[in-house]
Amino acid sequence: MDDVILKVEGITKTFPGVKALDDVSFDIRRGEVHALVGENGAGKSTLMKALAGLHKPDQGQIIYQGAPTEVTGPLDARQKGILLIHQELSLSPELSVAENIYLGAWPTNRFGVLKKRELRRNASAALQALGCGFGPDVRVGTLSVAMQQMVEIARAEAFRANVVIFDEPTASLTDTEKEQLFHTIRGLKARGVGIVYISHKMDEIFDITDRITVLRDGKVQGTVETAATDLNQVTRMMIGRTLDAYFVKAKAEFGEEVLRVDGLSKQGLFRDVSFSVREGEVLGLYGLVGAGRSEVVETVFGVRKADGGKITWKGGEIDLPTPRQSIDMGMALVPESRKEQGLVLMMGGRENTSLPHLRLFSELSIMNRSRELATFEKYRSALSIKTTGPDQAVSQLSGGNQQKFVLAKWLCADPKLIILDEPTRGIDVGSKSAIHELIADLAEQGLAVIVISSEMPEVLGVSHRVLTMSEGAIVAEFEGDDMTEENLIDAVSHHRGEAAA
Amino acid sequence: MGQTINGVLRRHGLILAFLVFLGGVAFNAPSFLTPGNILDVLRQVSITGVMALGVTFVVLTGRLDLSVGSLLTLLTVIVVDQHNFAGPFPAIVMTLLAGLAVGAVNGLLVGFIGLNALIVTLAMLSFLQGLVLFYSGGANVNVANAQETWFAVFGRGDFLGIPVPVILFLVAAIIAGLVLQFTSFGRRVYGVGGNETASIFSGIDARWTVFWTYVVSGFTTGLAAIIMGSRVMGAQNTIGQGYELTVLAGVILGGTSLLGGSGSIWRTVIGISMLGFIQNGLLLLGFPYYVQWLVTWAVIIIAVWIDLGAKRGRIFA
Questions:
Q1: Which residues of B touch A (CB under 8 A)?
Q2: With 80 as the cut, is the pLDDT of residue A173 above it?
């Protein structure tokens, strides 16, 4: 059967201390959607980078269209017909859609002058084939994330790609946008394109893919037909065990009120936000991306300045705090983006852990290294963080392990309130449930917890009470039996409908 | 780690090239590696070296200080002039205070107002050039009683056969190195340079951190001016011209990244010393003194190139 378009044979790639890929083999057929799943650090990204020519494998070969092929870089890959669509889009916001589609491979005449008309014509054809609602001359920076993704996919048309690799394509899409994306993927599939689909979201995997290949610790655990398997089997292959209880909810025993926010407002971001949270309580904050959830907690924490509003901490009204004051009071914020806001990537786990509490880890400004090391070791074993040592740069760790260091840096100073902004975004199933358990533990120890999430099962699963936010305002509050997916969707969408009318 | 093997090779390549250069110069100019000449080089290096210590703090936050050259001029004029007017001790105190003040102004503009460091310190370079001429009226100043004053010890003295400026440089380097490696201030500097947003989310006041690095830079330039004034026993209005780039070249030649967050004092000590030996070697080979500007160019380009290469290596990992 020769419908295999691309075949990977025995690829091995070693980084110091880690065998990222160990004798990996799998194949992609024409017109199939092939899922690649595995926990963070399982080797998915490394494999994709090898296909796109960003990594040179130590051993093994890539057989493309029946012949052994060496891919020398992303542009080479694209010209050969292998297209990688990154998790973080690789577009140039100041350039037009057409220029972005052909980024780095613009048609030029023999004097190096851009052939604008040809560029526009080809780009426009590619956009039409995908049914995009925008033209080739629009500046990419003005498009939404979903539209920008379409620009990347248009490259598949423009370069007549045979293989398209999607890396977490739905991470920042709404449900409608996701449906459109799936429609596009089905279109590519019908044209005979082989598609690799990397995602952590199992419902999507089962929705759109034909086969699933599972990676664990750099090795292929197996390839299965999607129709012939189920979530349980795939999960077992991924983590080597089944997940019985996905969510653990802390016992509902609440103490004193820790934080109360009254009428907090910030021009253009959110208005008149009020809520409170008690000791031992997990408060969920649900809303779509852009609803203003992160902005609210960042303002409470003091990273942003509010225009107005009142904050009460343990019964006493306080001025809007700076981050330093918030931390010293016992507030902790695990931010949305661990790489940009959570960690200093070139520092090790030891220095990252002590960073918010330098005063606690020093005497007369002299750092106490042994205290730092003791804390590092304590959290390394408590959270089972995989790292080679206290000074291994956290940039070298997987997303789940990085996130655990962000947690360690806040937990080590015994906070009274911990705010978790998308604590499980982009991390593997195993680390995810470890973090859910941790949330329950912390609440039972008497901490007040606020969890922000765009994943509805997560926010419903861990919280005692859920607030829904839409367009900068809190629109509803649910407790007990009212905490259902339908109610949350109603609250968010009803409000959006109202605002539009 | 594997990604940096490439970087290590490059780094060793640089040191290898340096050793070959040393050998070549020593072969052609036998006086090059004599103790006398080595001490001369170190004496020369001590002034740029002390300045480079402070500039290292600034560069570690991912910012620049190009004002140090004309600040050196201003402070040297001040220390020499005030030596005549108020005596050595008050002159030293005033010089250091003036250095702190200029550092504080830079720190305010860059750290608190958030203006671009390159522009702010380049503008300060121009401002101080003008200020020097206002202060001196365009005349050169000289220490009146050069033969008698104890002020001579900083630039001309010896202790156990080692020039005092070299000792001052090394002591200052040790103190600066300890501050960066072992204090919470040092940690803030690395934090802000490594990831300013994450540092702010960790409750670190990046504005104050940046402010203090400029103050440190002003202070070390004050120390350098004292050594300079004492060595020359006078000051022309151009005495520190071009020093800002020599200092920057030394810092990045040592391997401290212009992007901030990685680097150290000992790297700066090595970088600035290598630069000193290269320039001295070229003079001994018979090149005119102004060849040093060409060398500075080459060193900056090569060092920045290597820095970029190391960063790229990391991106691909």
A1: 1-3, 182-188, 190-191, 194-195, 197-205, 261-262, 314, 316-317
A2: no
Please state, in angstroms and as integers, the Cα–Cα distance from residue B33 to each residue in A153, B255, B268, following that order. 64, 25, 22
Q: What is the number of other CB atoms lying within 10 angstroms of the CB of residue A485? A: 11
Q: How far apart are the first and last CA of chain A?
A: 56
pLDDT band at A18 (very low <50, low <70, confident <90, very high): low
Q: Which residues of B touch A303 (CB under 8 A)?
A: 200-201
Check if the beta carbon of residue B306 is closer than 8 Å to that of residue B11. Answer: yes
Q: How big is the A-B interface in CB pairs under 8 Å?
A: 87
| Burial of A371: CB neighbours in 10 Å, binned 0-12, 13-18, 19+ | middle
Please choose, from the candidates B208, B200, B214, the residue with its C-alpha nearest in 3D space to the C-alpha of residue B117.
Answer: B214
Domain boundaries, chain A: 4-239, 257-330+415-500, 344-414
Q: What is the pLDDT of residues A362-384, one digit of tens each?
A: 999 999 999 999 999 999 999 98
The CA distance from A460 to A74, in Å, is: 41
Residue in chain B lying closest to A395 (CA): B314
Q: Which amino acid is at B37?
A: N
Nearest CA in chain B to A353: B202
CATH code, A257-330+415-500: 3.40.50.300
Q: Do A335 and B201 touch (CB under 8 A)?
A: yes
Chain A residues closer than 8 Å to B316 by CB: 54-55
Q: Which residues of B touch A342 (CB under 8 A)?
A: 198, 201
Confidence of residue A244 (pLDDT cuts 50, 70, 90): very low
**Nearest CB to B194: which of A326, A344, A409?**
A344
Question: Cα B302 to the chain's mean position, in Å?
Answer: 18
Of B1, B184, B203, the CB nearest to A367: B184
Q: From the options 3.30.70.141, 3.30.428.10, 1.10.630.10, 3.40.50.300, give the CATH code of A4-239.
A: 3.40.50.300
**Rounded Cα–Cα distance for residues B87 and A350 (Å):** 50
This prediction has a pTM of 0.74
